[in-house]
Amino acid sequence: MNNKISVIIPVYKVEEFLDDCVRSVIAQTHTNTEIILVDDGSPDNCPAMCDSWAEKDNRIKVIHKPNGGLSDARNAGLEIATGEYISFIDSDDWILPEMYEKMLSLLQKENADICACSIRSCYPDHEEVWGCKEYFTGTAEQILDMLYSDTSYPVSAWNKLYKRECWSKLRFPVGKICEDAFTTYQLVHNAGRIVQVPEAFYCYRIRPQSIMTSAFSIKRMDEEEAWRANYQFVKKHYPALYKKAFRFYLQKVHVLIRAISREQREEYSQQFKYLKDIMKTNMMFMVFKS
């Protein structure tokens, strides 16, 4: 396969941004790529745009499937991926030209299973860079320690390059949002070595109407489930990190509580009470950082 990278791009209602995304992958200095566009039942012009791109570049494959959500689309791409390495890109984002060349080189140099880069958050009027502040290689326990230190190791799937074997027994949870939080801790746990670079190769487009930036909905409760799974896993496998992971979980619960506006509290009274009870039960833990 000669260092082939399978780039999996789920596509749904992004006709305004899709061309920029695909162009950024085609323009990579590492050219041995397999670009898998997964049309997730998009109702706009995206299906035709995907087919048009496949006609222009023989590295592009297109899957047309009924709408099943982001996780389902990524999983469909994984099923047909043939590369030695796997990458995910959201179709409204884009990447810098040298991303794959540099990250692949570091994976091989460090004999690592995952390489992560920093992220360039692109707002309509400004940009912010976040992630790893310096070059770092580490074990699963070290990286998990960084993951639960908020943005030191971003939870997202799309700022990373993986060895194919990372995904041999793992798939994204279909029907859930916050899908990366359900999978990243397992990927880290199974990895022998992970490398991080401070360069922000991945450009993440901030869209005001996205799920994670819009008003609270019942789907946001997936976040609580995902981070609860994280701390429960850590408690079993990395007891030294348990308190940090649990504190991080409580921080996420607090964010969810604040996301439910006063006007929505009657509609989501059950969820609001559930989240508030978690915080109330663990008040002593938060106060004394025990």
If you had to describe this structure to a student in words, what would you say it looks like?
This protein has 10 helices and 10 strands. With 290 residues, it is an alpha/beta fold. Strands 1, 2, 3, 4, 5, 6, 7, 8, 9 and 10 form a 10-stranded mixed β-sheet that branches. The relative contact order is 0.12. The mean pLDDT is 95.
The major beta sheet can be summarized as: 10 strands, mixed
Measure the end-to-end span: 50 Å
- The average pLDDT is 95
Which residues form runs of ≥5 with pLDDT under 50?
none
Percentage of residues in helical conformation: 40-55%
| Total number of helices | 10
Strand content: 15-25%
Taking Cα atoms only, what radius of gyration do you get, to the nearest Å? 19 Å
Specify the overall morphology: globular
- What is the chain-wise order of helices and strands? EHEHEHEEHEEEHEHEHHHH
| Total number of beta strands | 10
Brief characterization of the structure:
The protein is of the alpha/beta class and 290 residues long. It is built from 10 helices and 10 strands.
Topology of helices and strands:
Blueprint: E1 5-11, H1 18-26, E2 33-40, H2 46-56, E3 60-65, H3 70-80, E4 85-88, E5 94-95, H4 99-110, E6 114-122, E7 127-130, E8 136-138, H5 140-147, E9 160-163, H6 179-190, E10 194-205, H7 221-237, H8 242-259, H9 269-281, H10 283-288
Parallel strand pairs: 1-2, 1-4, 2-3, 6-10
Antiparallel strand pairs: 4-9, 5-10, 6-7, 6-9, 8-10
Helix pairs in contact: 5-6, 6-7, 7-8, 8-9
